[in-house]
Amino acid sequence: MRIVFMGTPDFSVPVLEALIGSHHQVVGVVTQPDKPKGRGKAIQMSPVKETALRHGLSIYQPVRARDAAFIEEMRRLKPEVMVVIAFGQILSKEFLEVPVHGCINIHASLLPKYRGSAPIQWAVINGERESGITTMMMDEGIDTGDMLEKRAIVLDEKETGGSLFDRLSLLGGELILSTLEKLEAGTLPRTPQNHQEATYVKKIPKSLGEIDWSMDATAIERLIRGLNPWPSAYTWLNGKMLKLWAADVLPEGGKENRISGETSEEVKEYSAGDKRQKNVGVIVAALPAGLQIQTGNGILNITSLQLEGKKRMDTGAFLRGFPVQVGMRFGNRSDI
Predict the structure, then answer these.
(1) Distance between CA atoms of 34 and 259, rounded to whole angstroms?
(2) What CA–CA distances, in Å, run from 115 to 119, 152, 167, 237?
(3) 13 and 142, same domain (yes or no)
(4) Is residue 204 within 8 Å of 114, Cβ to Cβ?
(5) Hey, which of 3, 195, 282, 312 would disulfide with 306, CB 3.0 to 4.6 Å?
(6) Total domains, the chain
(7) Of 201, 216, 234, which one is at a domain's C-terminal end?
(8) Cis ω on the peptide bond leading into residue 231 (within 30° of 0)?
(9) Are residues 225 and 272 in the same domain?
């Protein structure tokens, strides 16, 4: 089939490579315009453009894919189908009608759950047991079109936003080939979404990563994993920002310290139920195996973190260079 591919970030690349390696013909690659990035504001190509260049494909970078001139340019390519994954622009009805068989979108959730721009991170943050990929026919709504195929995966106990991103990007490359095979054979089912079951997730702002220590330890631990590697969870200690990369949830209320195996009077004192809310964010134990922090419900044991201006390290290495005492409190920037 003659295919126009549309995508921009790393997540889109495995799908493009799967199409290139198939019997289909990629007649054009559409991606976002080059943009300045970093402190030096050097112009940078998208990962999709870099991949397309390596394979000698024709590249199109419209500022507005909805413009009539660009739509006409796409018509001249005579695509049978367009494959869209994380392109980054809303497409008009006129554009969607260009290919003979329409536009197929590859979405990183099990629709109709998690429509929107950040389904991967939110699946981890919300503690979902599974996620997956859905191929769907595009319409003028946001992720509202008829579903074609789904492929589910079970989330690992320590799944991060980054690890799920990698797994689903590869899965997208596998599923689109199955969907196109059925489309060619005329056996591709179309299932309308139940809009009453739909959930929508918005783009994640960096501010979401600032930890509210009054939350449950379990919720904070999931937040840390969901925002790893971007935009990352963070907190403040003595005027310094700390990024938190990995943590475990510890039981609360016992005298025994699960990490050291020894009695911790500090843990006992700060974990007491009547003092819990008063002492949220307080360091109750500082051990090489983890910094233990009182939360709104439970103790969070931080095992990997990063001081601003420094490299990521395990807690033991961090404590050797940054003295921390029991009773110190993590807070937010307004506390500085």
Answers:
(1) 49
(2) 7, 16, 19, 36
(3) yes
(4) no
(5) 312
(6) 2
(7) 201
(8) yes
(9) yes
Structure tokens at 24: 């289909």
The tens place of each residue's pLDDT in the chain, 336 residues long, gives: 999 999 999 999 999 999 999 999 999 999 999 998 877 788 999 999 999 999 999 999 999 999 999 999 999 999 999 999 999 999 999 999 999 999 999 999 999 999 999 999 999 999 999 999 999 999 999 999 999 999 999 999 999 999 999 999 999 999 999 999 999 999 999 999 999 999 999 999 999 999 999 999 999 999 999 999 999 999 999 889 999 999 999 975 433 333 333 333 333 343 444 455 668 999 999 999 999 999 999 999 999 999 999 999 999 999 999 889 999 999 877 665
Q: What is the largest CA-CA distance in the chain?
A: 75
Look up the domain containing 115 and give its range: 2-201
Tokens of 229: 């590697």
CATH of the domain at 196: 3.40.50.170
Q: Could you tell me the pTM of the whole model?
A: 0.90
Residue 113 and residue 59 share a domain: yes
Length of the chain: 336
Angle of helix 13-20 versus helix 47-54 axis, rounded to 10: 20
What's the CATH code of the domain at 296?
3.10.25.10
Report whether 154 contacts 132 (CB < 8 A).
no
